[in-house]
Amino acid sequence: MKCRTVTCAPTNIAVIEVTTRLVRLVRESIECGSYGLGDIVLFGNGERMKIDKHDDLLDVFLNFRINILAKCFAPLSGWKHSVESMISLLEDPEEMYEKCLKERGEKDDEDEEDDDEGEGEEEEGILRDEKLEINRGREGKIHPQYFKDVKEKKIWRNIIDQTLKKNKKKQQESVSSQENDQLKDDKGENEDELAQKKNNKMVASGKNDGLLTFQEFVKKRFDSTGEKLKFCIINLYTHLPTSFISIEVAKNMIKALGLLESIATLLHSSTVSFKRLKENICEFEDVGKAVDQFSKLHRNRQECLQILRCLHQTLPVPTIFLYDGIKNFCLCNASLIFCTASSSAKLHMAGMKPFELLVIDEAAQLKECESAIPLQLAGLRHAILVGDELQLPAMVKSKISTNAEFGRSLFERLVSLGHRKLLLNLQYRMHPSISLFPNQEFYNNRISDAPNVKERSYKRCFLQGDMYGSYSFINVAYGKEEQSNSHSTRNMVEVVAVSEIVAKLFKESVAKKQKVSVGVISPYNAQVFAIQEKLGKTYSTSTHSDFSVSVRSVDGFQGGEEDVIIISTVRSNLNGKVGFLSNRQRANVALTRARHCLWILGNGPTLANSGTIWTKLVSNAKARGCFYNAEDDKNLAQAIATSLVEHGYFHLLQNMDSLLFREARWKVCFSDDFWKSLAKIRRTEINKEVLRLLEKLSSGWRSPNNEKNPNAITGTCSELFQQYKVNGLLDLVWTTDILKENSNCTQVLKVWDILPWSETPKLARRLETLLGNYTVNDMNRCKVKCTEGNLEVPMRWPGNMNDTGKSLLLGDDPGELLSRSIASLRIWDESD
């Protein structure tokens, strides 16, 4: 990548999207770990970019890189010191151990007060040398978690002092035991024994409590130095540009990592003394595993020393310690820089290497005046504008500015002037069933589906049922649009429907251990806020989590994409008014964000009567067999019904029999008194319990221990009068009724009211009068019970030709009921 290129976009979302794609491609192509990422820099406001939710971009994010390189460049704890310390340790560990013992002995002879004072001065000096001057007001917050105060001399002392101080008496006993157990060599005491004896004497005298043995010292020193060295190696070949570090050096660094890991493993498992690394393998008379381990340790040590010495000579890191210096170093040596168009102004600085190429993504959304910012970068020879004038333009709120074409983009101007443009006619994002309608409607079928989206594996099934296929329109007929406090439009029923679908997706994702990213789009900010509030913090928004949910407006989603997109169109009225939803550019963006599944939620009749692009969409969905009703999903129907109750939309519940009881065994009829009483209940939990009880009753469930008010009703009609407790406070009163329809008589449930226990006698007396007007045949039909297992199911009989096609009680005039009381004097033969 010899051509220095700036890639910018109008929004942070678009910048993040294009950077993510490039980094993914680079990671797939590079051979040496993360070598090469140092040529790529992403900079901007980390908080607005939500960079903490994009772990894959941290390796190219400028602020993060500065923090990492500052640690690697540090003179007393960075790369230079770490590699020199490891070389010294591998070359002559005994000399280092003796040096530490000597320093410790001198330290113990000093006065404690002088020691403390010296330590404070020493640490102060180290901190002063290691301090990184960071201007936090220029590039956003620096992540302090990637900095650790390195106090080198204190680390040396801690390595030796790691074992806990023991009681002097116990230490002396331990020393005595160790001396008795020591083995002697034919040539006398070896160097290990001399060192150990020296240590023991110092311990016994109380001068050096808890000193490490030689081998303990070597292992701990290797571990601590190795961790710092590995940190520097990994981050240097990741964050340094390829112009500063060659591929051969990177390969040597990766090889050194493997050798360090191998030495650490052998060092902790081998029984061979580490000091013997200086000796020749032939001096060993032992055979077997120990010799094999030593042989491998010896070879790895020699090879690692050779590579580290080479790296020490060929990789001199820059002597830069200040924030601005490291920042300029990264920007000047990067080949690809990503930022927003406005942030590109920060590249206008003295000493900046010139750029050759400018690429503007989502160029049709960037105002012409904003395009001038990156176009003025020094040295530019070429500019490439990538955009789509058929999608959203720049946002301009002022009508005066809009009329003055302030929001016009340079891309749009060039198109209007007839400048030659190239059509990218392959789309790699959408499943063909998703791209079909936008391609027909917006691009005259000039866009082709790439081979990857045509593959069978690209079709994903996240939920069971045809409704949740690759493309579907879900008709939410019971929605109601309303104005929020911000004067934006929202539809709370659609909010609940979206929440229910997302919950189902999450459940299936966990059950199948399937990674899913979900995007929820709505043209209205009030709807976006309502959905975000409904979902809360239940689901992750990080793209790296197994299940993530992103809720944004259409404008905020331009440039983005997800596995599943759910569109909430909001509008629900009788006259087909859809407001700025009719904007074709906005519709184009919303309909082209999904990879595998696109589910559009809306009121079918409203959109069909709008005379806009949405009219064609609804017609297209019906023609393709992709049009579904929300109540076709039982769980979705229950959620919608609950939402209607919660928000007091009782006038919409009049057709609740088709919403809740479409697959119920019993048909349920309601009196006006029931709806009036339900509207007076302000407690959501009671309303939900009423719906659950009605659903259970319609399925055939009956309470075995139903308690009735003894003062409510008596006589022959008492068998029909039913009252069920709701939340221990209210009674749901219902009876079995007869519906005469299509020359048949069918048992149905008639729900009369929901009221306090004390008011049930009054309703019972009223029902006694009405029920008393039944014919004998009809009364007996109401009393008949038919069971299937534990469920009670409705009975059906052939009716008379003169039947009116309605319930006997529902809506009948009392006088008419009385005139029919003598119509039949015999009980219907159940065998007929």
UniProtKB/TrEMBL annotation:
Residues 6-399 form the DNA2/NAM7 helicase helicase domain. Residues 108-124 have a biased composition (Acidic residues). Keywords: ATP-binding, Helicase, Hydrolase, Nucleotide-binding. Residues 102-130, 167-202 are annotated as: Disordered. It comes from Vitis rotundifolia (Muscadine grape). This is Helicase MAGATAMA 3. Pfam families: AAA_11, AAA_12. CDD domains: SF1_C_Upf1 (cd18808). Residues 407-603 form the DNA2/NAM7 helicase-like C-terminal domain. One of its GO terms (cellular component) is chromosome. One of its GO terms (molecular function) is hydrolase activity.
